[in-house]
Amino acid sequence: MYRKITRYLLDWKQSPYRRPLILQGARQVGKTYALLEFGKAHYENVAYFNFETNPGLAGAFDESLEPGYLIPLLSRLAGQSIVTEKTLVIFDEVQLCERALTSLKYFCELAPAYHVIACGSLLGVAVNRQKFSFPVGKVDMKTLYPMDLEEFLLACGEGELVEQIRDCFARDTPMPAVLHEAALNYYRQYLLVGGMPDCVSKFIETRDYVLVRHIQDTLLAAYLNDMSKYNKANESKKTRLVYDNITVQLSKKNTRFQYKLVKKGGRASEFENAIEWLVLSGIVKRIYRVEQVKKPLENYRDIDAFKTYVSDVGLLCAKKEIVPEDILYPTHELDDFKGGMTENYVCTQLTARGYTSYYWTADRGGYEIDFLIQREGAILPIEVKAGEHTKARSLEVYQKTFQPEQSVRLSTKNFGMESGQKSVPLYACFCI
């Protein structure tokens, strides 16, 4: 399956300013697969080292971290020569070996001709919670997210549909009705399957939602296990409480995170470390409210007001035990959850595109813009609607107040322009 990160990796390989790369991402988002496929396609050979499946490997870094010492030793362990420019060296689950992570500094300084990539599922947690000697300024960093809807469509063999969607987005012209319905159907399938590569692969192979749900349940169990294995004992229970409660938060009309919904009388001081762990692990995304709509948005975030979303919408539906029929054939039974689920989907798509998202609320009237991003030097407001009902009063208020260059309204309606708002179908979120 094609992953868009391949383009980034190729640019990294060809850059004269290349440094060792750290590829982050939640468990099972496809880091190892993407790197091995990239290595096979663009290098003569790949030297792959996994610190989880081979715990004794860490001993190779005990004596020295200099490349002159490590390369002959690693070549012997790999059973092949590691050659500059021709071999891709991969350190997998590197969070389990602090000294391997530190060695990247010396590869950068003493042997920049070697192509080295380190990756790990809980790297953010390990670096922040343990006393790692992180090679600051000596590495390139990139995060891999679950497959977005564009990658899902490409995996389904719908390259021509992707081009049609992109063309209609650029020209604000409606899709032909039959293609619009086909794309909406793929969108609904994606809500159930999500973007975890194993789930996408099995769905394309079998079209069996029961099998996909089994894989998702296994992933959720692995996440819960990580919360115990890689967390402080007294924080593990709180972390599970917060993670399990996210679906409850998204079912509320006001999806702002509320500690009292996690536990009666709950406070920030009790759960802030748990939320931080989930964010650092990559399985939860947090977006903040901005107090003022000014650039840079980061300067005006309200650290006490935020929303949390699950990193993959398919896992969200699995956590909520949503049955396929309720998504594929929309009913009113999910009305309380549809808004939060759709917001979660949009958050994952914007995150995969590399945007940092925020949201805005008016001081009076209860008006709220679901997402604000900085795009092409301008602040872009994005209003999200789960269905065809597109009366966006909040967006109208925002437009009158801040007069943005452009506004986007995401819904199941076709492409077009209405009242200065760019109408974009939810399936085309990857175009933004």
Radius of gyration: 23 Å
Q: What is the mean pLDDT?
A: 94
* Low-pLDDT ranges: none
Number of strands: 13
- The count of helical stretches stands at 17
Shape: globular
Q: Into which percent range does the helicity of residues fall?
A: 40-55%
Estimate nothing, just give the exact number of structural domains: 2
Termini separation: 22 Å
Biggest sheet strand line-up: 7-6-8-9-10-11-13-12
**Helix and strand sequence:** HEHEHEHEHEHHHHHHHHEEHHHEEEHEEE
Task: Write up what this structure looks like.
By secondary structure, this protein is an alpha/beta fold. The protein folds into 2 domains: 5-143, Rossmann fold (3-Layer(aba) Sandwich); 149-431, no CATH class. Helix content is 46%, strand content 17%. It is built from 17 helices and 13 strands. The strands form 2 sheets. An 8-stranded mixed β-sheet has the order 7-6-8-9-10-11-13-12, sandwiched between helices. Helix 9 runs antiparallel to helix 10 (209-229). The longest helix is centred in the middle third of the chain and has 21 residues, at 209-229.
Characteristic terms for this protein:
432 residues; alpha/beta; Rossmann fold; 8-stranded mixed beta sheet
Summarize the entry for a quick read:
The chain has 432 residues and is of the alpha/beta class. It has helices spanning 5-14, 31-42, 67-78, 98-110, 123-129, 149-155, 159-171, 177-193, 197-206, 209-229, 233-250, 259-262, 268-281, 313-319, 324-328, 335-352, 393-402, and strands at 21-24, 45-50, 87-92, 115-120, 140-143, 284-290, 301-310, 358-361, 368-375, 378-384, 407-411, 416-418, 421-425.
